[in-house]
Amino acid sequence: PLLLAGLVLLVAAGLAFHFADKLKPAGLPVLVPLTTAATSSTNSSTSAPIPIGDGPLIEIDTEVGKIHIQLFPAQAPVAVAQLIKLTQSGYYNSDTLMQSQAQLGFAIAKLGESVKKFDFKDESNNLTSRRGSVAISKSSSSPAYLNNIFFGYGGQPDLEKYYTIIGQVVDGIELVEKSLSGQRLQVNSFKLIDRQS
Questions:
Q1: What phi and psi, each to the nearest 5 degrees, are found at residue 114?
Q2: DSSP structure string for 29-82
Q3: Fewest CB within 10 angstroms: 1, 55, 118, 150, which?
Q4: Could you give the CA distance from residue 152 to residue 17 in angstroms, rounded to a whole number?
Q5: Which residue has the higher pLDDT, 179 or 60?
Q6: Contact yes or no for 80/167 (Cβ under 8 A)
C-alpha cells in the first residue's frame, strides 16, 4: 500500500509540473503508473469485453487530428448524459487543452474561468481498463469530474480504483500516441455524431 501510494503521488506531481497553474481550477486527476505487463495494446482474456455497439459517438477535434469515442450509457448513465449535454452546449470548444504522458495516456482538461464545479456521485461498473479507455476521476481522487477526461494507452490494473470508465476510443488514439510526451495540444471542439447521417 505504501509503495502504491508513493507511485501515485509521484505521477500526480509530474502532471502538476507539466500542466502548471492552468489546471488548478479543474483539479488534477490521479494517474496510476502502468506495470510492465500492462503496456501492451490489449488486456488478457479475463478482461470484461468492451461494450462496443450503438452508444453515442463524440468527435474530438484537436490540432493533431480527430479522435472518436463511443460512450457507454448503460455503464455510466449520469456521466454520459452530462458529457453529451456539455458537448452540445459547446463547453469544450474553448479553453481546452490535451496533454500526453509517456506510457500512461493523455488527459483533456477544461481550463479558465468558465470551468464548472460539479456536485456528483460516483458510478461503478465492471469495465476494465485497456488501450483507449475513456475515464473520469472518482470523487475520492479529484473533484474534477468531467473537467478532466483521461484516455489510457494501455491496461492499468488499478485504474478502476480512481476512475470510472465511461467510454472507449474507436478511432484516432494513434494520433496522440505519436505526439511528444508532455506536449500541450489544443482541443478545438467536441461534437456529438449523428449516426443517422
A1: -85, 5
A2: PP-PPPPGGG-SSS--TTSPPP--SS--EEEEEETTEEEEEEE-TTTSHHHHHH
A3: 1
A4: 20
A5: 60
A6: yes
The C-alpha cell that represents 189 in the structure block: 471542439
Distance of CA 97 to the CA centre of its chain: 12
Q: What is the DSSP string of 128-155?
A: ---TTEEEEE-TTT-S-GGGEEEEESS-
Confidence of residue 3 (pLDDT cuts 50, 70, 90): very low
Alpha-carbon span 90 to 47, nearest angstrom:
35
CA angle in degrees (0–180, nearest 5) for 6-112-23: 10
CA atoms of 187 and 131, how far apart (whole Å)? 21
Residue in the block written with cell 450509457:
73
Task: Tell me the pLDDT tens digit for each residue of 65-90.
Answer: 999 999 999 999 999 999 999 999 99
Residue range 163-188, pLDDT digits in tens = 899 999 999 988 877 776 778 889 99
